[in-house]
Queue: 2 jobs
Job 1
Amino acid sequence: MGNVPNAEDSIVTTAKPDPVPELAARRQLWPHGVSLAIVALTVLILHLMDRVWWCQCGKMFPWTSDIWSEHCSQHLLDPYVFSHISHGFFFYGLVVWLPFKYKRPSFAWVMVIAVLIECAWEILENSPIIINRYRATTIAIGYTGDSVINSIIDIIACITGVLIARACGFWKTLAIFLAFEIGTLIWVRDNLSLNVLMLVWPIEAIKHWQSAISG
């Protein structure tokens, strides 16, 4: 009689894929999902705060340069977009460039931190206490808050700032920031530094100088 094949010999064994690389790949996607979830939650909160989706004028302009008009902060882009890009510079630098003695998070988690801070500011900025503060102490006398689409663009601008800071490094990023500050100061007599100063510690002489070219 011929050899009877062993049942075990007829079983074809295949190696199971290693779950570790797949799990690692999924973990790399988690922070991106967290960032998207934060943005989505922010949009929902702004909507529940009765923020308009776009300008109440009914027109959808991609850009407005008049910071004294009712269109500022209501459309896609305005001069303050440069301030929000600068937010990204600062948030990235806060986590990566400052000499703290702790383990630096991965870039994806740095982005999560930046998105979280920026979204928190967008919510706070559109609260009555900050809107009234802007109207009382800065040149934004007619400010009524941002539209939802403008807030979304502001968040994207902050993300862009984080990407620029990572790509350019400290000194080039500092040069870009100074260019933004000087450029908008000459252009509209306002910038991130003055905006923060006037919000926290208003100076009447600066407000008068800024208002001299309004209208």
Job 2
Amino acid sequence: MEKSQMVADAREKAEGYFRRGEFFCSEAVVHAINEFLGWPMPQAVTKLASAFPIGIGKSKCLCGAISGGAMALGMAYGRNHGEPMQDRMFPVAAALHDYVKAQYGSTCCRVIIKDFDFASAERKAHCVKITGEVTAWIAEQLLADPEIAARVESSATCNCCGE
């Protein structure tokens, strides 16, 4: 499968989870990236993202898609107790922050959704779009890392027929 299609699939999955009400923003990003990476973490890891929607527990502070994105990056670049921090973790997390800030002028949920009535379908569509954009951005970053790309590509290939 081509990398662009893999990124599009990850985006569509995250957006679909949120759009259908199966997950909120942060949960959708974590779950979609866990799947994208071939399930390196148990599916229950998504529960860790459940406090972050709507700007951390509905406080409308840090955008939940960013929070979920930072957690998702930890699946690839995080560490276990006693291990050194991977060199890539902080720069890629900061780049995620900077990407969203450049796109929306802020990383604050309250600011990003200020032009919408919170209960409106338009606001939800806006947040679904951001969730997909964050997921796609993370997928692109991960595929740019040769070691991770090799793992992702092998988990996306069928073991029985190679497709």
